[in-house]
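INPUT
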Amino acid sequence: MAKLKDLAAIEDRLVAGHGMCIGCGIPLIFKVILRATEDPLIIANATGCLEVCTTIFPRTSWNVTWVHSAFENAASTISGIEVMYKALKKKGRIPKDKRFKFLGVGGDGGTYDIGLQALSGAVERGHDIVYVCYDNNVYANTGGQRSSATPIGASATTSPAGTQSPGKIQRRKDLTKVLVAHNIPYVAQASPHRWQDLYNKAKKAFEVEGPAFLNVLCLCPTEWKYDESLGIRLAHMAVDTCVWPLYEVENGKYKINYKPKEKKPVLEWIKTQGRFRHLFKEKNAWVLEEFQKQVDQDWEELNKLESL
Amino acid sequence: MKKESWKELTLGTINLDAGNSVKNLTGTWRSGKKPQFIEERCIQCFFCWLYCPHFAIEVDGDKVRGINYDYCTGCGICSVECPTKEKAIVMVKEEVKLFEERAK
Amino acid sequence: MSKFVTLNGNQTIGEAARQIDPDVIAAYPITPSTAIVETIAKFKADGLISGEFVCPESEHSAMSLCIGAASAGGRVMTATASQGLALMWEMLYIAAGLRLPIVAAIANRSLSAPINIHGDHSDTMGARDSGWIQIYSENCQEAYDNFIQAFRIAEHLDVRTPVLVGLDGFIISHSMEVIQVEDDAEVKKFIGEYKSLYPLLDSKVKMTVGPIDFTDYYFEHKRNQLEGIENAPQVIEEVGKEFGKKFGREYGFFEGYRLDDAELCIVAMSSAAGTCKDAIDELRSEGKRVGLLKPRIFRPFPHQRISEALIKMKAVAVLDRSSSPGAFGAPLFTEIRSALYDYEERPKITNYVYGLGGRDIKIEHFKEVTDDLEKIAETGKVEKVYSYINLRE
Ligand SMILES: Cc1ncc(C[n+]2csc(CCOP(=O)(O)OP(=O)(O)O)c2C)c(N)n1
Ligand code: SF4
Ligand code: SF4
Ligand code: SF4
Ligand SMILES: [Mg+2]
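OUTPUT
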């Protein structure tokens, strides 16, 4: 088991001086993930907060090779790099003992929505890549528009709460299961507050041969509207309410990595964030109920899948 | 900082100066509060290092030594997550200084 | 030893791709360029190419893969047409902005709506400001020769800019022609080794590629990018000459056909130029002093060379196989008309749009155009700046 002290001794691949918001959850995720392999790493990053806030020219927060080409194509860009690696290796233009790891990174917008096709294609083709989605439930970089990862009831600028609207009314897309349906070697869902679990998953993802996918809950004080010091508390709550279950699917076999002793009501999660504030109005009570129902269904199904 | 002419730029929009954002001092964003490290109370769990979004926890060998105020934005996560009974990181009031003065 | 082989345009590109054997080929099928992709896939399946071939889930991803692969540090190609090129549009600019010497074969086809699978230049003309060098081919032989030269041009250190090679959909892509295929080893020698300046797969340098610019750097980066295409003419010329020396078919920026003593000139690119040559032979036998100028390079547009060739004409007809809705004429026309502006004395000039969606252009049409040119030369007046050929009114 890795110790935090040992991780801290490793050189940062993402460094200080980035422009992500005060209390942003993105760096916490990548601080851990980027330490889960010792091999040289190449990252292809989709457009979004992480990309924008780390590379404002002439500065860069990347102490590792990194490329951005567009919003919807991190998965195809990283596959192109991986294919070239294979080609040059076969031709002997990269030494036999030289290894690289290839990491595609995108937000929920770049992954659940506009980049889903590219990701589906890349994992179906079987490239030896890891793809990490940092899911902050919203298009944060462009100011808080809905994505298919936005939960029911959340107010986003393109699904705002209003006198006639309770915020987003659709159920969120279960992207992790979409990836499971691709029958790839490794799929997992993680959260930054359980760093050991996140680290283990990232390590497995880097180690398996073929495509691996990690979906990581990402705290966003700016768009979720909470006191920025409480991010990690919120992550606990997301997992304890089963809004964001931690599980992994290795070669098709489900394993839930954390089962709360006592599953907390979704309300506990919702009341911490301004984006759900309007749900406490009488007329929106049904949304809360619906949210709880969806979470219960998903949790039940997940437990069933695990027992298979 | 002198900005390059178009002829001086690397071909293909590439930045070869890896990690040079450390020159951006995000500590200038702090407004009104800052964390204070109280070494005697620290149990060296490294949670503050782990959860700090701005890479502002100073580590020396295998010990947390304090806060790097050049980068600390005062978000307060370290203090909330510090697990000791009497917190080894507490948030204290800070006089708001001018941006220029801090950026020095 | 070079040999004569009967191939259609798509097979020709496939054959050139086999000889060049790029490190990575990523391409998605679309009529009429599908057979390029299929030919390459089969070569790969039969072990005749050593590079990697990927057929991704879309053209957008194909170009994204090319961008990733080219950034990684090797030689890369793709092929597409029409909607496929349109779907790549976003990525075309990025390939150019990152100065990646990707080479693409485009079997020129119209754009929807209405959907139509036949040849015109709407697809590549739509990409004319994407930063790619554009070369157009009259026949299979030219497609083969241009495709080989494209790698040399794209990869030249002064250029490092992507190149697309157009061949007319169906008319060239699907027409069998006896072409001279050069010796594999000679083609490889001509192409040479490619060395990327900043390969991602260099574990010693940690670089940030494609960062975000604010207002203080974007303009400089764009100007820096333009340098590549601005340096291209000299390289295109050198490569065309060297190709001629080596393989006996020399190339320049355009081809002139019976231009030297011409008073009237038709400007037409790609396959239509072939028919036009036949028309000109007939017209010449009738005593009409008409010639053809067939641009080969459209980007960077060889404005000076072309205007110098046209300046002594009495009347010029520019034939475009695409339209530019709402503009003052179609793309080739506006380029040429603008190029002539600086000359005190210049020919009268008129524009025809022809062949959209694969509509035929025949000898008789070139004759009609020549009749118009004669009238213009006689009266010194252009009655219609913009008209259509072989369109039911
Ligand atoms: C093709 C395209 N459409 C839209 C945009 C605008 N855009 C840039 S980032 C972004 C949202 C990113 O959201 P997400 O992927 O969730 O990342 P986050 O900003 O939350 O980190 C959008 C809509 C774009 N850059 N490209
Ligand atoms: S908007 Fe949210 S995700 Fe984006 S940098 Fe700010 S806190 Fe982080
Ligand atoms: S207050 Fe925030 S930025 Fe400052 S050290 Fe603590 S966690 Fe880091
Ligand atoms: S979280 Fe608190 S106890 Fe743990 S290392 Fe940091 S200061 Fe010390
Ligand atoms: Mg997001």
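end of record. The mean pLDDT of chain C is 98.
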